[in-house]
């Protein structure tokens, strides 16, 4: 039994066709590449005593031919999304996904809870933390953790211990501390 999709294609010889294409590509790469050229090493390093020696990159044989340019000597800028930033994003995402997070997903509504802002001088919630994270306002993990802790401290200060808000804050605080201890072990 045979199935033909394109009559031009010899399906029985595809292996040979692919091998020919591969060889053609490799031949073109070999033609353009100068990787087979081996340059003499610098004499300063021949005896193994060149440690700490500063040399001009222009003096390195073959460096220019490889495509090097002086502007490539500038050190790469550090990644804007470093380990701490990734950790903060992960922690906040996990906190927001927790079943107890519903109470912290929006700022407290002053019309629904009129005295809240009289009692709580420094309010904090997950959307505010998310905004601060997105706009680069957290200089480090400790500042981020302080804001997360503030969310739960505020809930515990304002609400009596037997309320769902206080109990939820305690559970969320434990989750935060678990994440923080894991991150600190890694870093």
Automatic annotation (TrEMBL):
Swiss-Prot/TrEMBL GO biological process terms: positive regulation of transcription by RNA polymerase II
PROSITE patterns registered for this protein in UniProt: BROMODOMAIN_1, BROMODOMAIN_2
A GO term, aspect molecular function: histone H3 acetyltransferase activity
Listed name of the protein: Bromo domain-containing protein
SMART domains in alphabetical order: BROMO (SM00297)
Keywords: Acyltransferase, Bromodomain, Transferase
Superkingdom assignment: Eukaryota
Lineage of the organism: Eukaryota, Fungi, Dikarya, Basidiomycota, Agaricomycotina
Short name of any one Pfam family annotated for the protein: Bromodomain
Bromo domain residues: 96-166
GO CC, one annotated term: histone acetyltransferase complex
